[in-house]
Amino acid sequence: MGCEDEDAVRVPELREGASLRVVFPDPLLSFFNFENPETSRVQFDLYTQNSNIDSVNIYATFTDVSEVPSVTYPITPAGQPQRRQLVKTYRQSDFDSEGALRNATITLGEVAAAMGLELSDIEGADVVNFYNQVVLTDGRRFPEAIPLPDDYNSNTVTPDIEGRGVQTSSFNAGFTAFVACPLPAGFATGRYRIEQIAGEPDPFSGAPGRFAPMQVNLTQTSPIGRTFSPTYYGFDARTFNFNLVCGDLIVPPTGAGLSCGGPSLGWRAAPTPGEYDVASDDVLILEILDNPDGACGLTVDVPLTLRLTKVE
Fold it and tell me: SS3 breakdown of the chain: % helix, strand, coil, rounded to 5?
């Protein structure tokens, strides 16, 4: 029977990581109001379990979609990771005894100034992506690195946390805020008829459209977000999300959960967004590119136009 030197057995010292949650109590303050840019702001609460915070740094990128192609600030040399600009810093003393910082705000003016822009340079449908970084008093950073204009580098502590890619119950790595226009109550909700009015047919069934003509129910997911469940390639109840942004209909990249054993079928926004009349929700036009990932051996990025017509 062998012997073991108990003094030689060492248990690794465990150190506390970082926690940070971002909550928007008022949905109307989760986007920048384009109608009042001088006073426009996003407002949120921050929560942490840490008592050893040196700083919570909020960085941002700003995408000007009015340019063709769109331009993202801060301007980054080709071939380098997109840089991000510091917009706001909070300290441990800003949090109360329960680890809460309530009614934190970032104004559209602060974003513009950080990017070297004027408020007049910002238009509806522009996008601000925010990236959170927590720096602890021992120098560790979560996430470990955020590319900045001054070639900033930081300690390596958590290689699994990169950019905004980590969203857990204890750490929110970032959030997105559109520059948008408030909508009337009930706008673009209820029963609509969907039709594919331009684009290729279904290559499997031969149906005239990849989205079947049918009635769908538009429901509100946020002040500017809507969702409905169309039939796509003959499969019912696919989830289709979009945002109404000052006359433009912005469609996020979406996987439909359908494949031929490889990439998933789905869609993304076309370079020129669909449109709606800000004074009427009778007709909504969605412009998308179908099959961006080249699933099932089909052509990539096939343009489709969908029309949603309100059912009285």
Answer: 5, 40, 50
Q: Can you read off the two tokens belonging to residue 11?
A: 């248990």
Match 């949120």 to its residue by tokens.
Answer: 44
What pLDDT, on a 0 to 100 scale, did the predictor assign at position 66? 78
The two beta strands, 174-180 and 32-33, are parallel
Give the integer Cα–Cα distance in Å for 277 and 202: 30
Over the stretch 131-168, which tens digit does the pLDDT of each residue have?
999 999 999 999 887 776 643 333 222 223 233 334 55
**CA-to-CA separations, 290 to 101, 241, 296, in angstroms, rounded:** 42, 14, 12
- Please name which of 196, 198, 203 lies closest in space to residue 260, comparing C-alpha atoms: 203
Helices marked H in the chain = 108-114
Q: How far apart are CA 93 and CA 96, in angstroms?
A: 7
CB 130 within 8 Å of CB 87: yes
Tokens 């696919």 -> residue: 238
Measured CA to CA, the distance from residue 110 to residue 208 in angstroms comes to 49
Of the CA atoms within 13 Å of residue 303, those in its CB half-sphere come to: 7
* Two structure tokens written together for 150: 């001054």
Distance CA 61, CA 75 (A): 9
Residues of the chain with pLDDT under 70: 1-15, 148-169
> CB–CB of 44/24 below 8 Å?
yes
Domains with residue ranges and CATH for the chain: 21-180 (2.60.40), 190-310 (2.40.128)
- By C-alpha distance, which of 39, 61, 23, 37 is closest to 246? 37
Half-sphere exposure of 96 (CA within 13 A, CB side): 8
pLDDT tens digits for 196-208?
999 999 999 999 9
Q: What is the predicted pLDDT for the residue at 4?
A: 55
Contact 195, 209 (CB under 8 A): yes
**How far apart, in whole angstroms, are the C-alpha atoms of residue 38 and residue 184?**
22
Residue 288: which region, alpha, beta or left (left: phi > 0; alpha: psi -120 to 50)? beta
